[in-house]
Prior knowledge:
The two termini are 13 Å apart. 8% of the residues are buried. The protein is an alpha+beta fold. It has one domain (5-57). The strands form 2 sheets. Strands 1-2 form a two-stranded antiparallel sheet. It has helices at residues 17-23, 44-52, 54-57, and strands at 5-7, 14-16, 25-27, 36-38. The chain has 3 helices and 4 strands; from the N terminus they run ββαββαα. Zinc ion binds next to loops.
Amino acid sequence: MRIITHTCPDCGTVVAANELEKNRVMKCPRLDCNTVLRFEDLPDSEREHFLEHRDQYQI
Length: 59
Ligand SMILES: [Zn+2]
């Protein structure tokens, strides 16, 4: 299974795509970082792959 993650551009915290997809918009999980991360920030190819295989990403 391909791991799809998004990296916060400000602090480098890595967030799993399934977390982003579940929340759509979420604050960076790092406490001292207020950057907002969006599922839409993922590249198109990664979003498409995730949506096509989303059942594999449910934990
Ligand atoms: Zn951050």
